[in-house]
Amino acid sequence: MSEKQILAAVLMGSWGLLAFGASWFAWHLIQQQRKRAWLRQHGLPAEATVLRLQGTGMRINRNQVFDFLLEVTLPGQAPYQVRLRSRWHDWNVRVMDVGLRLKVKVDPNDLQRLVVLGPVVPQDLSRLFSGLGALAAPAPGDPVKGLADLQRMADEGLVTPEEYARKKAEILARL
User: Which parts pass through the membrane (predicted)?
Assistant: First the structure.
């Protein structure tokens, strides 16, 4: 075998391995999506309370991934805990904090598998801002801190771009 034939064989094998890996990854993502869809449709309805959340340092599409500890309550059963790694951005939740109650669907065959549907009580951001006190309306003498807090909230996905622009304009109008 010549040197060119060996090189061609190695390149073909590399491309084949790359194509196989990409195909497997795509298949894996599709399977995960199908499992979540099945769970949303056929899972047992329950509620979960956020007991702990901790950032992982990972980001997917600029949204931070968190490790959650949830206490799940199924009707007629004792509450139990589930650890979950997820982006809360996927949960239709505007502000995430310990104590937040979530609607979930639980896999009847594996109670540790669940999908979060959203908060039990819809979150009205204007009401949340009024409850945030200094963060939502910083002291008039400290607009820099208010802008920094607002930017942090926007970076973490806690406010939409429209809400960010509106609050920023309010803070700048006080200058």
Answer: 6-30
